[in-house]
Specification:
single chain; 2 domains; five-stranded parallel β-sheet; two-stranded antiparallel ribbon
Length: about 350
């Protein structure tokens, strides 16, 4: 088959086998009853960006964090704030700047001279949804403090460790164009993000709707609470029990392995990839695929779920070489090639 040949269509996965421990369609429908009304409520305020909303919901269901990359003005902050409003969850926005201190994020100990004691003053990280706006503008010490919160879901202030809320999700934004005065995020921190989502411009039709709705000094941005965090946590238990066939598990591993040893599937990629995805990418791809199936009302994962989610899961985990940058090859190009070359179950 030539390089330009159209890849074979992806066959639908067989229905999940009957199992007493496998959620049936009625259980899925009941557990996900909040999803459609929540999407509808978000759409009242956030026009377009359906893929972004889906990724946020998948992250919420998998207890993951999301890195949003896009130019200013694409409603990244609005999307996060609106999601928090529909969940009736606690939301905090932190504007990351070069002079930000770890105490500005996690909190600090406050001294009381009257009795000579210290008490903790908790920072904005103690919320359900935390928007880290322009995360790459903060120095290394702030990133280190945030890393503990993202990975361990706890914060140490003084000698006391404080557990964070459940759910706890960091939604970070960064501008792909303006790199002056920014700090490149370390790979260890990037790997903690479930997704790296590229937020793009709206279509002409969507932009006209934005104009009609927002061209006022007092746009209506309030939303109603559709569900609560208790329902989200209950839905997670259903997601964890969804069926994933052994062949799909092998397919996930094959994709991750190909990112580390691309010469086995596409020899010309060997000089373009400096480092492949970590095992965390394997785990996250499987978890996200289950959440995707749940959002679509299925109790089993299909190969198409994997192909749909792989770019956002792997975009920040596959590190490109200098040769790739010189040739203008992007991580999307590499991921597409890998997915085209690996046989679909």
């Amino acid at each position: 088959m030539s390089e330009s040949a159209t890849p074979p269509a992806i066959p639908a996965a067989p229905a999940a086998p009957v199992s007493p421990n496998l959620p049936d369609s009625d259980a899925i429908a009941q557990a996900s009853s909040w999803v459609a009304p929540l999407r509808k409520e978000i759409a009242r305020v956030l026009i377009g960006q359906a893929d972004l909303v889906d990724r946020l919901l998948v992250a919420l269901l998998t207890n993951g964090h999301v890195l949003l990359e896009g130019v200013p003005g694409l409603a990244k902050t609005l999307a996060v704030r609106t999601l928090a409003g529909t969940l009736n969850a606690k939301f905090q926005r932190i504007q990351f700047t070069p002079d930000l201190l770890p105490a500005d994020v996690i909190g600090t100990m406050v001294y009381h001279p009257k009795d000579g004691t210290f008490t903790p003053r908790l920072g904005p990280i103690f919320s359900n949804l935390v928007l880290a706006d322009e995360i790459n503008r903060a120095p290394a010490k702030v990133q280190s403090a945030l890393l503990e919160a993202m990975q361990e879901r706890q914060v140490t202030i003084g000698e006391v460790t404080h557990k964070l809320a459940d759910p706890f999700m960091v939604l970070a934004t960064q501008n792909p164009i303006d790199q002056e005065g920014t700090y490149t995020l370390p790979e260890a921190q990037l790997d903690r993000f479930l997704f790296k989502v590229r937020v793009t411009y709206p279509t002409p039709a969507e932009e006209r709707l934005v104009l009609d709705a927002m061209a006022t000094s007092a746009p209506k941005l309030d939303v109603n609470a559709i569900t609560n965090i208790t329902d989200v946590i209950a839905s997670r238990k259903i997601v964890n029990g969804l069926y994933m066939d052994e062949k799909i598990r092998d397919y996930i591993v094959a994709i991750i392995q190909a990112s580390r040893f691309p010469e086995n599937v596409a020899p010309h990629l060997k000089l373009l990839i400096r480092c492949g995805a970590s095992p965390r990418g394997t785990i996250n791809l499987a978890l996200a695929a289950k959440a995707q199936a749940f959002l679509q009302g299925r109790n089993y994962v299909t190969p198409q779920d994997i192909k749909d989610l792989a770019p956002d899961i792997l975009r920040h985990r596959i590190l490109l070489s200098y040769e790739a940058e010189a040739e203008g090859v992007t991580s999307e190009d590499v991921i597409k090639t890998l997915l085209d070359k690996i046989p679909v179950p």
